[in-house]
Write a sequence for this structure.
């Protein structure tokens, strides 16, 4: 899926080179996310490669470039080529995902099964296999239907680019597209196409489209509109940098209809910097927005939030929506039909990628268990932005028409808009058994699988369950201690409206903690038992072994802790708080440039700055040691004058080691 409104990315002149520096090789193009540029370069480089290892690296980059430009059939072949040339399990994992997107489910299941044996854990791929098996069952059910529930067809105005998120306005549609007619002359080198704009399709049965409005469309990315009931207020997503050479985050904007046009857009006041807000959906009374965001308090990935307009007309504070809806995956593209909420998720059980789900509030205020819309609305690829435009009749035989978007194979471009007609079929006979509601939480304790066993600096291949681990489950002041089974799991029947805290422990491991809320979990008579999952990842203690702390950077010739380094150190402080018996050394390393004495002094100051930061977070000073190593312990061995910038970056690192 390539719609840029899903991610935070660096736009235009970020770093001064992303779009202006000349790219001379395929690897650099991939590093700068210029995938369309990378493909022909990598194809030429593969033919010239002289070693198996070099062929493997090029094949992997080429497969990624094909994937990111919407060519999964080619990506499958090149991921296999990368694996055959020694790249390892990552290539097979990507191949299996591409097979699912292509709906080659049996091949995907076999590939995931092979992967499980290779890394030593089938657990890692259980959801992927279950989703492929579900897709095969649903496909068989659809083929057995005498009268199909859905009829689906692509719209006439799809283009070779990405077209998605069509909504109704007046008698036509407004949608998002990065087709060549979009505003601005710059090319988004990820896709080789334009940045996205809003477009209008006055007649949805025709191929004719026009740019939506010049006061809304800019050289940046706009998309995913939602209109107030009277059609005079539009909420939409715009991704633009606040200044040159800065990251572009997505925000939610509002524009008002003025005569025959639209006003300049203004960002809604609850949108904060350094996070992505997108995909707004406005309720029928115009007083509530539901949107997707990747805020820190969420459950993981992108979550759905709701925000209300207050009596004075101002917007309140967004609330994270129910755990029945949000998962540790991504929930995006909400749309509303009355009080029924449609949204897409890759965290709920689905057929592959994003699937479209439906839910609605019950009488007690909690949301019903989300229901997968199944085939042919959902596919192995990404399916999203489901809208209802018209209803005809009521009861059995009545129809509903509307639109959704998909990156499934066979379309005109990377994402396409599809029209559907849904017919209400007779319901199945009711079950005579009484309904018993149960919400079950499966807690699994897991650990990392390292490519080199015993080396925490080696690549992580996946996760495996930890048997016989201790889990302390707490509700308020009450707690109980349970031991996991041979699959590293324990199952709890949840009590409604409780906040659960969990702590996982095992000798010679760092403890981990997690939480789960059973507030407002659904009670669905058609699916009375709902199961949820929580992973607790405990880390094996490797004493006196260096572990690199990612994303710790310093300004040139400075030692203070930058804001972008704080999340990593905050996470380390939480590990230390959960494990009060361990002591660590914070180490700082420089690259080889500069005098030895200078590098030693600078690295010592940087290590001490990291220690001081942890002390400010409440960690006792006697549990921390600072040591600057200067340039004495490089991990990328090279002659200094010939080191690449990537090798210098590897050597400039902040580390910690657990002391005896």
């Amino acid at each position: 899926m390539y719609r840029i409104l899903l991610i935070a990315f660096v736009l235009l002149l970020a770093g001064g080179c992303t779009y202006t520096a000349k790219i001379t090789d395929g690897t650099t193009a991939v590093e700068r996310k210029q995938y369309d540029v990378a493909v022909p370069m990598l194809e030429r480089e593969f033919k010239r490669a002289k070693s198996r290892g070099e062929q493997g690296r090029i094949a992997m980059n080429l497969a990624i470039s094909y994937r990111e430009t919407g060519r999964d059939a080619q990506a499958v072949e090149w991921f296999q080529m990368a694996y055959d040339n020694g790249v390892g399990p990552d290539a097979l994992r990507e191949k299996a995902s591409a097979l699912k997107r292509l709906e080659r489910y049996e091949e995907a299941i076999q590939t995931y099964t092979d992967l499980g044996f290779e890394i030593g854990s089938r657990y890692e791929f259980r959801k992927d296999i279950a989703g492929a098996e579900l897709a095969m069952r649903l496909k068989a059910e659809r083929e057995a239907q005498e009268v199909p529930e859905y009829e689906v067809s692509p719209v006439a105005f799809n283009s070779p680019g990405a077209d998605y998120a069509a909504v109704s306005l007046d008698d036509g549609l407004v949608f998002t597209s990065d087709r060549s007619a979009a505003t601005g002359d710059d090319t988004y080198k990820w896709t080789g196409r334009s940045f996205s704009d809003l477009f209008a399709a006055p007649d949805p049965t025709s191929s004719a489209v026009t740019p939506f409005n010049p006061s809304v469309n800019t050289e940046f990315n706009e998309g995913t509109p939602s209109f107030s009931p009277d059609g005079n207020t539009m909420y939409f997503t715009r991704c633009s940098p606040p200044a040159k050479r800065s990251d572009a985050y997505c925000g939610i904007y509002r524009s008002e209809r003025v005569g025959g046009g639209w006003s300049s857009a203004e960002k809604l006041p609850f949108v904060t910097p350094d996070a992505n807000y997108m995909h707004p959906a406005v309720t029928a009374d115009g007083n509530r927005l539901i949107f997707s965001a990747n805020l820190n308090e969420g459950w993981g990935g992108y979550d759905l939030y709701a925000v209300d307009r207050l009596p004075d007309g101002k917007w309140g504070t967004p609330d994270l929506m129910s755990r029945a809806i949000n998962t540790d995956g991504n929930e995006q593209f909400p749309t509303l039909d009355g009080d029924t909420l449609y949204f897409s998720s890759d965290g709920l059980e689905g057929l592959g990628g994003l699937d479209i789900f439906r839910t609605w509030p019950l009488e007690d205020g909690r949301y019903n268990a989300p229901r997968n819309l199944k085939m042919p609305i959902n596919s192995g690829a990404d399916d999203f932005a489901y809208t209802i435009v018209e209803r005809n009749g009521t009861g059995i035989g009545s129809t509903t028409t509307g639109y959704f978007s998909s990156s499934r194979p066979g379309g005109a471009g990377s994402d396409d808009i599809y029209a559907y007609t849904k017919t209400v079929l007779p319901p199945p006979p009711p079950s005579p058994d009484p309904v018993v509601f149960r919400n079950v939480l499966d807690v699994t304790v897991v650990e990392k699988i390292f490519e080199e066993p015993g080396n925490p600096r080696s690549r992580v291949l996946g996760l495996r369950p930890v048997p016989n681990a201790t889990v302390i489950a707490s509700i308020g002041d009450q707690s109980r201690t349970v031991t996991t089974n041979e699959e590293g799991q324990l199952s709890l029947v949840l009590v409604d409206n409780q906040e659960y805290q969990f702590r996982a422990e095992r000798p010679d491991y760092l403890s981990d903690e997690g939480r789960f809320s059973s507030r407002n979990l659904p009670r669905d008579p058609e699916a009375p038992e709902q199961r949820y999952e929580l992973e607790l990842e405990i880390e094996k203690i490797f004493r006196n072994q260096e572990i690199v702390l990612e994303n710790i950077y310093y300004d040139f010739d400075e030692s203070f802790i930058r804001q972008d380094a704080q999340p990593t150190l905050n996470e380390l402080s939480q590990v230390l708080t959960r494990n009060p018996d361990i002591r660590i050394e914070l180490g700082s390393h420089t690259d080889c440039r500069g005098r030895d004495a200078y590098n030693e002094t600078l690295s010592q100051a940087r290590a001490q700055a990291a220690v001081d930061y942890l002390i400010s977070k409440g960690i006792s000073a006697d549990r921390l040691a600072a040591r600057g190593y200067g340039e004495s312990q490089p991990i990328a061995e090279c002659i200094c004058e010939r080191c690449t910038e990537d090798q210098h970056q590897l050597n400039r690192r902040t580390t910690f080691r657990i002391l005896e």
